[in-house]
Amino acid sequence: MTEETMREYYAQRAQTLEQVYQRPERQADLQEMQQRVCELLKNHQVLEVACGTGYWTEKFAPHAQSVYATDINQPMLDLAQAKNYPDVKPEFALANIYDLPDAKEGQYSACFAGFFWSHVKREEQAALLVKLSKGAGKGSLLVLMDNNYIEGSSTPIARTDAEGNTFQFRIRADGERVLIVKNFPTDSALRKKFGPLVRDIRVVRNEHYWLLTCILK
């Protein structure tokens, strides 16, 4: 699985990506996490990375002071820009999360990434945290949200590599089956990975989702 494979897979899925948020059994947990995210990002100058279709941008933008939302896929950004933003109009940009420009002083006060961390290989996570600290600015609030593995509901794990990364098979729009990295970290694994690079780590979980907050340093 390469970064190019991942990018192509999600570009093809742009029109149907939000179907994952429509599962009836996940609605209560989703609403709880949505409320938490909006409260956390209230009045912040937010850098959003891997914004996708703008599903989460649309939810928290009315509560933020400003939003700069980025994604690597133009088809995703086209959908995100077409959403309704009556209060705070986000600025959107095509950008690679691994190649973000360094933040200017006071440019951002928070960074948000929804359902992206699980696609980052374990051996690349520390370096990405350093990049996020530079991209959002030291002292910024980092908010990450992702999903738990639920037996019988989640796509089965297809393989695990030597680094402990887990992978799932996904079907592209053209019918081709591709292997996508999808990790499901425990609270202790998150704290161990983040500990040396951030401060004030907090992890909240419900049945279907987890939410991590910390301060970048």
From TrEMBL:
Keywords: Methyltransferase, Transferase
Presence of keyword Plastid: no
Gene3D superfamilies assigned to the protein according to its UniProt record, in alphabetical order: Vaccinia Virus protein VP39
Domain of life: Bacteria
Pfam entry (one): Methyltransf_25
GO biological process terms on file: methylation
All copies of domain Methyltransferase, residue ranges: 46-132
GO function terms (MF aspect): polyprenyldihydroxybenzoate methyltransferase activity
Keyword Transferase: yes
CDD domains in the cross-refs: AdoMet_MTases
Protein's name according to its UniProt entry: Class I SAM-dependent methyltransferase
Species whose genome carries this gene: Undibacterium jejuense
Lineage, opening ranks: Bacteria, Pseudomonadati, Pseudomonadota, Betaproteobacteria, Burkholderiales
